[in-house]
Amino acid sequence: MLLPFLNEGIIEAGCDEAGRGCLAGPVFAAAVILPPDFKNDILNDSKQLSEKKRYQLRPIIEQEAVAWGVGIVTEKEIDEINILNASFLAMHRAVDALKIRPEALLIDGNRFKKYNDLPHTCIVKGDGKMMSIAAASILAKTHRDDYMNKLHEKYPHYEWKSNKGYPTVAHRKAIEQYGPSEYHRMTFTLLDPQLSLEF
Fold first, then answer.
1. 50: DSSP letter
2. Which of 52, 3, 15, 28 is nearest to 148 (CA)?
3. Residue 123 is inside which H or E element, if any?
4. In what order do the strands lie in the sheet with 12-18?
């Protein structure tokens, strides 16, 4: 069962990211402040939900949240500062986008780079424990999926519509055949070494 808050009586924003393990496209993050009485029986970690349920929940979260924001760090920035720092920066940008300033941040994961003077708590698998982090995971995932679906129209041979930039066998084989696009993260291992082993 998801908890509505970590510390009662203060404004908490849950933060999560999507796309960290991808070979292509930006990393997206979301920050969500939910009302203290928010309830939803479907809400859960986005990875535990079907695509249909994620998209059912997104307008509910966006309409009922006290505030929400999405932050994006491009593949070029990822290559410059590395994916860990890019994940933190995307969360910072998501918090920047909130119309209400939170008093504390709840971060999915075990590491975070402090945002200004706000206290934060890192919660491992927090998207399966806290409502606000679960809501953030859904917004980050669906906003990123929308973006990758648009990129798929430009580069259909990478099949981003189905893999969203994750390192599937089909995606890696397309990179081997067509080479990387400008949306690929060039500091990542784009080709599986086993695809090109010589015996």
1. -
2. 28
3. strand 120-123
4. 67-73, 27-33, 12-18, 104-108, 120-123
- Which pLDDT tens digit goes with each residue over 34-89? 999 999 999 988 889 999 999 999 999 999 999 999 999 999 999 999 999 999 99
116-144 in b/e form (b: 16+ CB < 10 A) is eeeebeebeebbbbbbbbbbbbbbbbbbb
Token reading at 16: 């999560």
Q: Reply yes or no on whether the pLDDT at 146 is more than 90.
A: yes
Q: Residue 190 has which token pair?
A: 């784009």
Give the Cα separation of 199 and 195 in Å (integer).
12
- What would you measure as the largest C-alpha separation in the chain, in angstroms? 64
Model confidence, pTM:
0.94
Nearest to 70 by CA among 92, 49, 37: 92
In order of 2, 194, 195, the CA distances from 198 in angstroms are 50, 9, 9
Q: What are phi and psi of 70, to 5 degrees?
A: -125, 135
**At a CB cut-off of 8 Å and minimum separation 6, what does 67 contact?**
13, 32, 33, 98, 99, 100
Given a contact cutoff of 8 angstroms between Cβ atoms, the answer to whether 107 and 126 are in contact is yes
